[in-house]
Design brief:
The chain has about 180 residues and is mainly α. It contains eight helices and two strands; from the N terminus they run ααααββαααα. Strands 1-2 form a two-stranded antiparallel ribbon.
Length: about 180
């Protein structure tokens, strides 16, 4: 029975062989995704050239933050800065993009629209607000978590006092012995 089990395991392939086949399948599949994505993006670039040019110019703060964010914690790269900046940057650029789509949708209009000071101020100002969110929101969350923890400690101390009143001071002495 043991010999049969070893023969069946040997016939099914070893772990390194299986890993090799999985990697080979992943490399075959992984080429199709980026190739199709690149083809779609290239076609969109050609078909929607005014929109692409305007978005490239308006989204420069997002691109800069995406490449400049090199923070690494715990062995993993966490790049959240560009998401905060990018979300607000898109929100600032979108009204002007809608105006271009429903108005003059040409390459000259896209560059002209971006060269207006109000467009630059709103799009880049919104990106600046995204950067402020990135810097301030984690500190606010940390502050509120600290307040909640302090409140929890106060609540536990009050419950401990009530237990000592109910059960006596011996309970506190026993609990300190267990800590050691």
């Amino acid at each position: 029975m043991i010999g049969e089990k070893k023969e069946s395991e040997a016939g099914s392939g070893t772990l390194p062989e299986l890993r090799g086949t999985v990697r080979a399948k992943r490399s075959q599949v992984s080429f199709a995704g980026p190739a199709v994505s690149f083809l779609i993006l290239f076609l969109m670039f050609l078909l929607m050239l005014p929109t692409t040019v305007f978005l490239f110019l308006a989204m420069l703060p997002t691109l800069v933050s995406m490449f400049a964010d090199n923070r690494q914690e715990g062995g993993h790269k966490h790049k959240y800065k560009w998401l905060c900046i990018g979300g607000m940057n898109v929100a600032g650029a979108l009204p002007f993009l809608f105006g271009m789509w429903f108005g003059d949708n040409s390459l000259d209009a896209a560059v002209g629209l971006f060269m207006q000071p109000s467009t630059v101020i709103v799009a880049y100002g919104a990106a600046g607000i995204g950067w402020v969110f990135y810097r301030c929101i984690p500190l606010l969350v940390l502050h509120f978590l600290e307040l909640a923890d302090q409140r929890k400690v106060i609540t536990l101390k009050e419950r401990q006092k009530k237990l000592i009143e109910k059960w006596g001071a011996e309970i506190a002495a026993v609990s300190s012995e267990f800590k050691k």
